[in-house]
């Protein structure tokens, strides 16, 4: 991992928005909730012990703006000290901007990724079979289902046609049926941030990044802001069986969120998030380069619908939750041989970027090579209590 700079982190409009992060403070052996401003990084933990608590405010952006905080340093220095290689453990470094919130994810919310899920299922986790199946699935279903409203009469008619042709799939069920796929991505507080290594199961031989918008939602179901995410996926595991979803999704360092949380305010709104353009770049040490680009506007279910299907009378989240909205880009570019498609190699650098949210940059390693996750909810509560912050 090369040393990151502020340019590798901030949105295009710099610090004009309301930006929230978390920073590890060696002097207290624990994390700080910080406001990232033009004149530095400010510790606001005394007012908001957790990002979750900040998101519970009636107007989080206004509440943060009214909090001066204590300046802990320049963003440039903190960012430069974040990557695990060469990190000075005596100086602060950046963390994922999420703490007590439950980590949730929606799947099969974009037509292109829905088709790739169907292909994974039919290929039974074998990338060599994917290209031929891709052509057949596209012939039967088409490659543009973006205007098809899930659960509509038109969608249900298509479902029956595909059943009659023996082409129905559980992924099409959640892609165009009335019920969204929403699952728990990973344990609370297990996310890695920008500049850190992201993890792949060491037994996986067919996998990919999943660039996504991550919404931050309060316990009352209010969407208060967003960040970028990489919902790292193992195509071989999930392709063999959907019952392996937890192993395909939940491994050490397999949930990346960052670089910062941008709260909704006058500079960034939910409507801006709905139109967000997200890009993907993968660079390998073998010289391989992959680029992708798409827009949240192509999503088949509105973000508010996905949030409503996650929280309500049948399920509550007292500390709020974050919700990955689903990937809009499934990389299929051949890497090693024709028809073999894409899979990660050790030390790939993955950059997920959006003009309003900055860049989330991670190096890919196997999960057992990544820094072990040791600081959980209990450790956070003990640390905050020792600092007399709760």
Automatic annotation (TrEMBL):
Residues 223-364 form the Fumarylacetoacetase-like C-terminal domain. It holds the Pfam family FAA_hydrolase. GO terms for molecular function: hydrolase activity; metal ion binding. InterPro entries: FAH (IPR051121), Fumarylacetoacetase-like_C (IPR011234), Fumarylacetoacetase_C_sf (IPR036663). GO terms for biological process: small molecule metabolic process. Keywords: Hydrolase, Metal-binding. The keyword Kinase does not apply. Belongs to the FAH family. This is Fumarylacetoacetate hydrolase. It comes from Bradyrhizobium nitroreducens. The lineage of its organism: Bacteria, Pseudomonadati, Pseudomonadota, Alphaproteobacteria, Hyphomicrobiales.
């Amino acid at each position: 991992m090369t040393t990151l700079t502020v340019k590798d982190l901030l949105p295009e409009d710099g610090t004009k928005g309301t930006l929230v992060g978390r920073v590890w403070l060696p002097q207290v052996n624990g994390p700080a909730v910080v406001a990232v401003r033009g004149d530095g990084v400010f510790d606001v933990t005394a007012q908001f012990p957790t990002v979750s608590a900040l998101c519970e405010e009636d107007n989080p952006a206004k509440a943060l703006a009214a909090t001066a905080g204590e300046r802990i340093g320049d963003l440039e220095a903190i960012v430069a000290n974040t990557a695990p290689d060469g990190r000075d453990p005596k100086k602060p470094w950046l963390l994922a901007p999420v703490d007590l919130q439950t980590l949730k994810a929606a799947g099969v919310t974009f037509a292109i990724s829905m088709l790739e899920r169907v292909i994974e299922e039919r290929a039974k986790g074998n990338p060599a079979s994917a290209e031929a199946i891709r052509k057949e699935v596209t012939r039967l279903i088409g490659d543009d289902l973006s205007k098809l409203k899930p659960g509509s009469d038109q969608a249900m008619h298509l479902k029956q046609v595909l059943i009659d042709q023996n082409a129905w799939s559980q992924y099409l069920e959640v892609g165009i049926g009335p019920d969204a796929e929403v699952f728990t991505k990973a344990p609370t507080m297990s996310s890695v941030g920008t500049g850190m290594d992201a993890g792949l199961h060491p037994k996986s031989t067919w996998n990919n990044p999943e660039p996504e918008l991550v919404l931050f939602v309060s316990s009352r179901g209010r969407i208060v802001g967003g960040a970028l995410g990489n919902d790292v996926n193992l195509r071989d595991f999930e392709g063999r069986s959907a019952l392996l979803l937890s192993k395909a999704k939940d491994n050490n360092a397999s949930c990346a969120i960052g670089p910062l949380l941008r709260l909704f305010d006058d500079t960034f709104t939910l409507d801006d998030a709905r139109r967000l353009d997200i890009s993907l770049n993968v660079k390998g040490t073998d010289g391989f380069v992959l680029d992708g680009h798409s827009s949240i506007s192509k999503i088949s279910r509105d973000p508010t619908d996905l949030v409503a299907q996650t929280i309500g009378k049948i399920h509550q989240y007292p500390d709020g939750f974050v919700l990955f909205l689903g990937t809009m880009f499934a990389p299929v570019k051949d890497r090693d041989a024709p028809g073999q498609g894409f899979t990660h190699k050790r030390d790939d650098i993955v950059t997920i970027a959006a003009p309003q949210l900055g860049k989330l940059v991670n190096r890919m390693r196997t999960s057992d090579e990544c820094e072990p996750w040791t600081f959980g909810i209990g450790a956070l509560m003990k640390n905050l209590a020792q600092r007399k912050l709760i």
